[in-house]
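Hello,

Our lab assistant flagged a job as stuck in the queue for most of the afternoon. It eventually completed. Since we weren't sure the result was trustworthy after the delay, we are filing this so someone can double-check. Below is the sequence as submitted and the structure that was eventually returned. Let us know if re-running is recommended.
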Amino acid sequence: MRFGVAMKNLALASSMLFAGCSKHDELGLAYQGETRAENVKLLVDETWTDAGGNRQVKQEIFSEVFQIIDEAEQFVLIDFFLMNEFLYEPGPGLTNLSREFADKIIAKKAADPGVAITFISDPVNTVYGSIESPLFSAMEAAGVNVVWTDHNPMRDSNRLYSVGWRIFAKPFGVSPGNVLVNPMGEGRISARSMMKLLNFKANHRKVVVTEKTLLITSANPHSGSSAHWNVALRVDGAGMKMACESESAILKMSGAKPFDISQVNDGKSEAGYRLELLTERRIRERVLGLLDAAEPGERVDLAMFYLSHKDVIQALINAQKRGADVRVILDPAKDAFGRIKNGIPNRQSAKRLTDAGIALRWADTHGEQCHVKMLYVEHADETATLLLGSCNYTRRNMDDYNAECNLAVTVPNMHDCAVRARETFDRWWSNPDERFFTTEYATYADPSVRRRLRAWMMERTGLSTF
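-- returned structure --
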């Protein structure tokens, strides 16, 4: 029987190797939806150091998420990539956010048992079947419908590795084990789980939706990430149906029942602002469209955790050449939960941008990450578009490999959402009142040709985690 399964996977892997996965659209991914919304709010989590070098944290996102959950009367549909306590150690600005979040969900289910709660997540939280998650087990025991994303139908970004994995390892599944050290924290894992991890594939979305509210963010309810910089858009009374439709694709792909869209009534207003929900490559298409349309004197601000997509980098350079006012803030790619990274791919992307004359600053991180994925573009008609969510600007995130979800809202320049986006970016850029958010490009400049070639190879082959 396993031989037959292996032969089936051989045929599938061969077709993917030579033609790529043609089923992505059939899965319902690469979603694009549009509606009108009146009540849109930008939320910001930020971390800085004061004049004494002490880390300071101001956070808004998860207090609003908790409020949204409390207010739900019919359903709560959640999709978060990362929620575990691996590598969490209490420290300045850090909280055990994963446990707080699980406790909130369990308390909601106990207080309002009639509210249906579905929690979609990524098997990275069990290290691909090797280590049971006590948080998800507790939620499941409380009556929460926990759905683990099935990556197997998704395209393989690490194709050189994944073809062999599909033929020789996938038929045997995953299981607990103690052969290898857990790369994410304490404990040990099986060799089969490690082999699945090396596909470097994820449901990377961060979505909360109820019958009343939609929230899309770059933040995870992850204890080790609880001091990260992040942003979110909260929309009340609109967009919920789009989110439920896009999440139904993940549910169906993972063998779960798609969401009953009939439960959702957006209460759409024709007088509201343009609101777009975008997943996977639709995000890339919208980003490139915004950058390609940027004209002389128009403002383009980008704050990004990972930047390496060649088309986006070129579009930023082209916008700068046309006379747009382009500024970029990047994470220096040096911190990862107590481990030191080598700056790839951001320092190599930054060199290309600065060589083209684009103004760039680094997030001045001290253990945390600038986990923001936010693009703000002003238009000649005195409107502005704010685009944010889970999607890093990399090949894996933008080219139909990961599952991603972003929101874009287009509002007048003086709308609270646009004003706050500008003020936030300006604050990070200029370090006012002895609050130090960013540092100059020279701090982490990397001219190494060897690392530039390495970054290029990792991006093109998929042999990387970004």
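-- support follow-up --
The delay was a queue issue, not a problem with the job. The result is valid. The first strand starts at residue 32 and ends at 37. The chain has a mean pLDDT of 92.
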